[in-house]
Amino acid sequence: MADEKKVLFSGMQATGNLTLGNYLGALKNWVDLSDSYECFYSVVDLHSITVRQNPAEFRQKAKNLLALYIAAGLDPTKNCIYYQSHVSGHAELSWILSCFTYMGELNRMTQFKDKSAKHADNINAGLYTYPVLMAADILLYQTNVVPVGKDQLQHLELTRDIAQRFNAIYGDVFQIPEPFIGKAGAKIMSLQDPLKKMSKSDENPNASIYLTDDKDTIIRKFKRAVTDSEANICYREEQPGVSNLIEIYSACTGKSIDDAVAEFAGKGYGDLKLAVGETVADMLAPLQTRHAEILSDKAYLDGIVKENAEKAQYFANKTLRKVQKKVGFNEKIR
Ligand code: ATP
Ligand code: LTN
Predict the structure, then answer these.
(1) Is the Cβ atom of 250 under 6 angstroms away from ligand 1?
(2) Most CB atoms closer than 10 Å: which of 61, 129, 169, 209?
(3) Backbone angles phi, psi at 83, to 5 degrees
């Protein structure tokens, strides 16, 4: 790439309202990293149809998500922000890579196991080959780093294995990507069951803080957060609920875990919950305002979508052509 910056790729699915977990575990890190890399941030809509979607709602959710990337602070003139479905190379490379992926590898993927248990009536082949499409997303742009939450590490390991396998046969075609896990907020837990990760598909709305929740809702949800009966604010495995609140506080304020714990020494759980609630609400307020502004400006958003899809397509095609040639497809006559 022109300025020799390293390449960063990441994506999120538009399958529901984004949660504080998505923000602290992914989006916030994306913004922090965006100046240092050549960045591609995709709304991975191809991945989303592994679960049934209502078309009209899905279209709107994907648009909301794309606007949220921008509202969170990603400059769409510097970062390539686009819909995965607008760049055909993702699906094309995915097919090729699926021929270099073993069933045994896919059988081990925990996300597949979780999602098949959740959607037992629709265990489709796309759900199964989902990690191969993810590998294609990453390898298509010669990505160096992939910022994700801890839950995606297994998919990234598989991506590296596929890339190394392909390179061992055909030479150095793919860059081998590294995961990037943020220091704070790598795994935000459910407010109702602190042993489970906060997830946008959780049926209990009190379990998650949505990025669109207003201040009252946020404070109410934190007040109801499940803690324990120790009545002592500590950050330790035996107190997962309280530790999660501390983790959230630390990720939002930038304070270390130790400083956060020290700040609440001698205080009660009620004080902690209120402080965390207010901090989160204040952090989200400007993002919510900006999000509404972006969504109301159709011409602006359409321009971004078009320009960035073209940019992504250009880089994607470079890798795709090389791969097609390496595996032995005849060249297209142009
Ligand atoms: P779903 O409930 O639909 O599976 P999800 O909320 O788990 O969704 P994803 O779309 O799978 O979210 O993930 C988007 C990004 O957010 C990924 O990088 C993922 O690692 C990160 N992420 C998701 N949940 C959390 C969490 N609780 N804590 C930290 N990071 C998270
Ligand atoms: N599988 C991821 C979303 C995703 C992704 C990617 C993340 C699809 N393609 C490429 C990083 C890089 C998820 O469920 N969060």
Answers:
(1) no
(2) 209
(3) -85, 130
Task: Say which amino acid occupies 234.
Answer: C
CA of 249 to the centre of ligand 2 (A): 26
Residue 185 zone, left/alpha/beta (φ > 0; ψ -120 to 50; rest):
left
Beta strand spans in the chain (E):
7-12, 38-43, 80-83, 145-147, 178-180
Indicate the SS3 state at residue 82: strand
Residue 24 CA, ligand 1 centroid: distance in Å: 10
Which phi and psi angles does 216 have, rounded to 5°?
-60, -45
Question: The pTM is what?
Answer: 0.90
* 7-12 sheet: strands from edge to edge: 80-83, 38-43, 7-12, 145-147, 178-180
CB 154 within 8 A of CB 109: yes
The count of residues in the chain is 334
- Closest to 195 in 3D by CA, of 233, 241, 151, 232: 241
The Cα-based distances of 183 to 56, 58, 150 in angstroms read: 37, 32, 11
Ligand at minimal distance from the CA of 19 is 1
Percent of the chain at pLDDT > 70 equals: 99
CB of residue 40 inside a 6 A radius of ligand 2? no
Of the candidates 156, 116, 123, which has an alpha carbon nearest to the alpha carbon of residue 9?
A: 156
**311 neighbors 158 (Cβ within 8 angstroms):** no
Predicted local distance difference test score (pLDDT) of residue 43: 98
Q: Which residue has the higher pLDDT, 118 or 94?
A: 94
Please give the share of the chain, as a percent, with pLDDT higher than 90: 88
**133-174: pLDDT as tens digits:** 999 999 999 999 999 878 899 999 999 999 999 999 999 999
